[in-house]
Amino acid sequence: MLLEQSPPVSADTPIPITLTINGQRRELQVAPWTTLLDLLRERLDLTGTKKGCDHGQCGACTVLVDGTRVNACLALAVMKDGAEITTVEGLAGLGERKGSNALHPIQEAFIEHDAFQCGYCTPGQLCSSVGLMNEGHAKSRDEIREAMSGNLCRCGAYTNIVDAIEDVMHGGAR
Amino acid sequence: MNRFEYVRAGTVAEAVQAFGAGARFIAGGTNLIDLMKYDVEKPGRLIDITRLPLTGIEERDGGLRLGALATNAKVAYDDRVAQRYPMLRNAILAGASAQLRNAASTGGNLLQRTRCYYFYDAGTPCNKREPGSGCPAIGGVNRIHAIFGASEHCIATHPSDMCVALAALEAVVQVSGPDGERSIPFAAFHRLPGDAPERDTTLKPGEIVVSVDLPERGFAQHYTYLKLRDRLSYAFALVSIAAGLELDGDTVKTARLALGGVAHKPWRNVEAEALLVGKPATRDNFQAAADRIVAEAKPQSENGFKVELARRAIVRGLEQAAAGTPQSLSDKRIQ
Ligand SMILES: Cc1cc2nc3c(=O)[nH]c(=O)nc-3n(C[C@H](O)[C@H](O)[C@H](O)COP(=O)(O)OP(=O)(O)OC[C@H]3O[C@@H](n4cnc5c(N)ncnc54)[C@H](O)[C@@H]3O)c2cc1C
Ligand code: SF4
Ligand code: FES
Ligand code: FES
């Protein structure tokens, strides 16, 4: 779905909203049918977040909304008015060395553990991993696997992804 | 996706008032937006209900009241739900993915639509999507379809896991609408397709689910939610079972059993449940109840396997419940 293909239906669209995206406050005008994913990618050039299926079936579009992981393809931007959004581009800013431009520990761990091949699913995997750690429910390896099942990886990097998450959860990755 | 008007409701009354022909409420959006992308749903107006004050989980009459906008994740990870209604927790966590459960709401989960392939494909006929156009699933691709309670007009299943547990727990759905408020027992909330498969539930136009009430009895000692599917996670149930037992020593005092993935609504057979009461919790007795349930099965051309799968799932689910060893959510081996 391309954004702004057709003109708004009525005079009162587009709708003004405010989002804080990766720490930056943005005042935006959006048509109500714009998904959060399309807003990020097509309008704000935050193309790190990927569109895999556009139907909630792959997790490539996973972002954090107020710290919680969700599928950006099944969210309307207008409904997130007032929210704080973190995409893969903003993960570094969440790390302990905030402001230093250093990678988030989970990003370092993905590199360390070779947790990707083509990289297409990786932004979603990274955001999902951070969401998983924020939630704090998954502890064992089996629980991590189950809690990451919403992120498909066609390259099959699953084992290494779980290694990377375990490493960060147990304070391993530098 | 079609163009639509967007309205953000601040109160239940405002939401009900904003309703009209072609309008839809939207909560988590995980089902509605998906269907809009396929042009299966083409609402002229979306009423955003996510700002309504219905996100809480409260104590009520010895049970819990789940706000219609409490997310699936919030309900599943609520300590009271985990302790008193672990069957519900497990059913929710067996469904969808963590991301989807973070967005999906209690009300939206009840009202999610079938995953029938033809329903999703606006290029094919479908009585549920377009009344009177026919049901190509009958004699077509129907591996995932119903074996109980279907009609010559529709053989779709209700895809929810959460609702299977809510049926076993005998929850009550509280709704508010143009004619005021009313309570709907869970068994009367979803419909069988009959000759009106376009209607999934007994909700009237403009009625909004405000909460789901859990009665006191939670079967927290003897329960399971066992879900069988094509892959071990992030897939809809082919057959699932929510089982709850109350035992007096070895004797069954109360039995509740609901099946998912097999009918247009969570499937219960109260006669089969009654068969278990007063009898020892043995495999033979579980087998008899299972036989009683599947005796009514009417499989389609491609889903005959569901009959035996359901029979075995019932026996295994009752064994898990009786032994107090519910199906693990992360260790997928079925013990
Ligand atoms: C890839 C994928 C996999 C999934 N797997 C599973 C699974 O394994 N098991 C499972 O159970 N579910 C599964 N789901 C479905 C998911 O659980 C539902 O999409 C979700 O519960 C719907 O809730 P929502 O709040 O997002 O609903 P919405 O999409 O917002 O709404 C759905 C419908 O409910 C109506 N509605 C919403 N709230 C109310 C209310 N309070 N009163 C009246 N009407 C209302 C809307 O008008 C709409 O018609 C899956 C979904 C996806 C996309
Ligand atoms: S089974 Fe129901 S939903 Fe599927 S094609 Fe037939 S009428 Fe439509
Ligand atoms: S693009 Fe959103 S889940 Fe696949
Ligand atoms: S690294 Fe290629 S899809 Fe995951």
Please report the total strand number of chain B as a whole number. Answer: 11
Rg of chain B, alpha carbons: 19 Å
Q: Using only CA atoms, what is the Rg of chain A?
A: 17 Å
Distance between the termini of chain B: 45 Å
Q: Supply the CATH architecture of the domain at 223-322 in chain B.
A: 2-Layer Sandwich
Any idea of the CATH class of the domain at 223-322 in chain B? Alpha Beta
Supply the number of helical segments of chain A: 5
Core attributes:
heterodimer; A: 174 residues; alpha+beta; Ubiquitin-like (UB roll); DNA polymerase, domain 1; 2 domains; 5-stranded mixed sheet; 5 helices; 5 strands; 14% strand; disordered N terminus; B: 335 residues; Uridine Diphospho-n-acetylenolpyruvylglucosamine Reductase, domain 2; Enolase-like, domain 1; 5-stranded antiparallel sheet; 3-stranded parallel sheet; 12 helices; 11 strands; 20% strand; globular; binds flavin-adenine dinucleotide; binds iron/sulfur cluster; binds FE2/S2 (inorganic) cluster
List the helices and strands and how they pair.
The complex is a heterodimer of chains A (174) and B (335).
Chain A: E1 15-21, E2 24-30, H1 36-43, E3 62-65, E4 68-71, E5 84-86, H2 105-112, H3 122-135, H4 141-147, H5 158-169
Parallel strand pairs in A: 1-5
Antiparallel strand pairs in A: 1-2, 3-4, 3-5
Helix pairs in contact in A: 2-5
Chain B: E1 5-8, H1 12-18, E2 23-26, H2 32-37, E3 45-48, E4 57-60, E5 63-67, H3 72-76, H4 79-84, H5 86-93, H6 98-103, H7 106-111, H8 117-120, H9 162-169, E6 172-177, E7 180-185, E8 208-214, E9 222-228, E10 239-248, E11 251-260, H10 270-276, H11 283-294, H12 305-323
Parallel strand pairs in B: 1-3, 2-3
Antiparallel strand pairs in B: 4-5, 5-8, 6-7, 6-8, 9-10, 10-11
